[in-house]
RNA sequence: GUGGGAGUAGCUCAGCUGGUAGAGCGUCGGUCUGUGGCACCGAAUGUCGCGGGUUCAAUCCCCGUCUCCCACCCCA
């Protein structure tokens, strides 16, 4: 925003949150905390440990993991030169005669993370986690950054809760009995999905639907066969497709499958389906996954048009939609990504993971009326007089120590006013401390809901509250 | 990044074809100097998103810009 020339006296400029970012405030933050607390609890019951990777990494990590050609990497990342790297170049005298363009291209670039799977894989490698008991099960939660046009359920700083299961490939085991390996992988996939559904169920998220698919693997006898077939069929119906889809025939034919354009639907429905072209291994894996989900009582729907946008996915892909989200109705997406760790310089490793859009999850909970109401205080202390203040301070300390939420007004107020304030704050009880109470040693406790009140000695009061709150 | 809609008090909004702003809710105070929710009375708060233009005069018309919302692209 350009500030006009300094004319007359100017008020200090008002700041506002940067586009696509926002403040999360009470009482909404209580819901965020509940969601995150539930995630901690549920994920830990499945044996997952929390990882907290940094919020920025070398740009190259994301470029390699997510795919340099993807929209996320090519135009949606917050990328900047690492100032430390520039400084080092200067110190080492390497900048002699360099044009500024060269200088920038030589300097290390870093990016705010657009997702966290790449970081988790990097950490797996960096900390030699292949030496831990396998598989390694990690979860994370925190902000991600993508420079997209904001809309409902999509922000430039948004929050994800995700989990990854990584397992280093034991060559002997794989060669000994590949079918067993496939069954094991499918069971892990299913358990990850089961964990998700357990989490959503615990939150009472309304109208969730789980969609699954298999997109095969990149070998010559699997997805590439399908891609050739799909490409031929797409050429035949090219004239019927919209401009976007026509362009994608060359750039990313798979993406045409999840086009939302009404006029294309009848043609897309007739296109070949990847599940008919899976190789033996991928087909066995997909069949085993469905069996595993059924054994776990997880309801799913197959969606052959579900393809994931990130380069690293193979075999299992899945997505969960929920109510009340407008066009951004996916609350969670995930899939298998064997080979990604190796691509990042680690040992051959299998992986499966998901990311939940926490903003969307919260939105859906709010839309379905699951949001908690304003958090009130347990006890409001209405006090009058100097002696009473000392008592009030002591009472507040003891009540808080016992775990109650206490509001202690900083100045004395008439009791009428104090009770009014207590009411507005949603307090359950008012502890009334005036001259009478202090001299008698009997404190008055008023139940705001029905107006009843009674006198208690200091220890009795604590007992009473513990019993009734 | 593309297209459409909208920005007026803390919130939700009104403001007739241009004459520099109002309601409800909320907040605060009073009726009510040891007892809240109700009621009544009263008060504060707006550079009418920001900048420029047209005009004697702009919240209203025009242009630009920022932000939000909706959809596309893409994704969580």
Biggest pleated-sheet summary: 8 strands, mixed
What is the rounded Rg?
A: 29 Å
The tally of helices reads: 19
**Count of DSSP E strands?**
16
CATH topology of the largest domain: BirA Bifunctional Protein, domain 2
Class of the largest domain, according to the CATH hierarchy?
Alpha Beta
CATH architecture of the largest domain: 2-Layer Sandwich
End-to-end distance, in Å?
52 Å
* Tally of individual domains: 2
* Percent helix range: 40-55%
Give the DSSP E fraction (strand runs of 2 or more residues). Answer: 15-25%
Given as residue ranges, the uncertain stretches (5+ residues, pLDDT < 50) are 1-10
Q: Could you give the order of strands across the largest sheet?
A: 1-5-6-11-10-9-7-8
Provide the structure class: alpha+beta
Global morphology: elongated
Give the full name of the CATH homologous superfamily of the largest domain.
Answer: Bira Bifunctional Protein, Domain 2
Mean pLDDT: 89
């Amino acid at each position: 925003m350009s500030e006009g020339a300094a004319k007359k006296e100017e008020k200090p400029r008002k700041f506002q949150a940067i586009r696509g970012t926002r403040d999360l405030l009470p009482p909404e933050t209580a819901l965020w905390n509940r969601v995150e607390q539930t995630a901690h609890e549920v994920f830990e019951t499945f044996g997952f440990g929390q990882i907290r990777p940094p919020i920025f990494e070398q740009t190259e990590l994301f470029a390699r993991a997510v795919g340099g050609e993807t929209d996320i990497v090519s135009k949606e990342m917050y990328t900047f030169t690492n100032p430390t790297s520039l400084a080092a170049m200067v110190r080492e005298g390497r900048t002699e005669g360099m044009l500024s363009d060269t200088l920038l291209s030589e300097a290390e670039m870093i990016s705010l993370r657009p997702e966290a799977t790449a970081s988790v894989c990097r950490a797996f490698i960096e900390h030699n986690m292949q030496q831990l008991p396998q598989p390694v099960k990690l979860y994370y939660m925190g902000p991600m950054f993508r420079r997209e046009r904001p809309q409902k359920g999509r922000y430039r700083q948004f929050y994800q809760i995700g989990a990854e299961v990584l397992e280093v490939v034991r060559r002997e085991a794989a060669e000994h009995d590949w079918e067993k390996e496939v069954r094991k992988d499918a069971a892990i996939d299913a358990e990850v999905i089961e964990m998700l559904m357990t989490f959503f169920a615990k939150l009472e998220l309304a109208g969730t639907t789980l969609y699954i698919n298999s997109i095969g693997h990149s070998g010559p006898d699997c997805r590439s066969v399908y891609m050739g077939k799909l490409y031929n069929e797409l050429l035949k119906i090219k004239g019927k497709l919209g401009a976007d889809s026509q362009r994608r025939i060359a750039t990313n034919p798979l993406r045409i499958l999840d086009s939302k354009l009404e006029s294309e639907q009848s043609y897309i429905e007739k296109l070949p389906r990847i599940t008919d072209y899976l190789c033996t291994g991928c087909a066995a894996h997909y069949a085993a996954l469905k069996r595993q989900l059924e054994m776990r009582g997880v309801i799913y729907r197959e969606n052959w048009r579900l393809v994931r946008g990130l380069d690293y996915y193979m075999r299992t892909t899945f997505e969960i939609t929920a109510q009340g989200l407008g066009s951004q109705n996916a609350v969670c997406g995930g899939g298998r990504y064997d080979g990604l760790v190796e691509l990042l310089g680690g040992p051959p490793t299998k992986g499966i993971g998901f990311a939940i859009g926490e903003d969307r999850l919260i939105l859906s909970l709010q839309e379905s009326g699951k949001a908690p109401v304003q958090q009130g205080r347990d006890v409001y202390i209405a006090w009058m007089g100097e002696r009473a203040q000392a008592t009030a301070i002591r009472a507040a300390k003891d009540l808080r120590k016992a775990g109650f939420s206490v509001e202690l007004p900083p100045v004395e107020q008439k009791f009428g006013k104090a009770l009014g304030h207590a009411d507005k704050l949603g307090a359950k009880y008012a502890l009334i401390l005036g001259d009478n109470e202090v001299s008698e040693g009997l404190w008055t406790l008023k139940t705001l809901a029905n107006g009843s009140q009674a006198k208690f000695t200091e220890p009795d009061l604590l007992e009473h509250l513990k019993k009734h709150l």
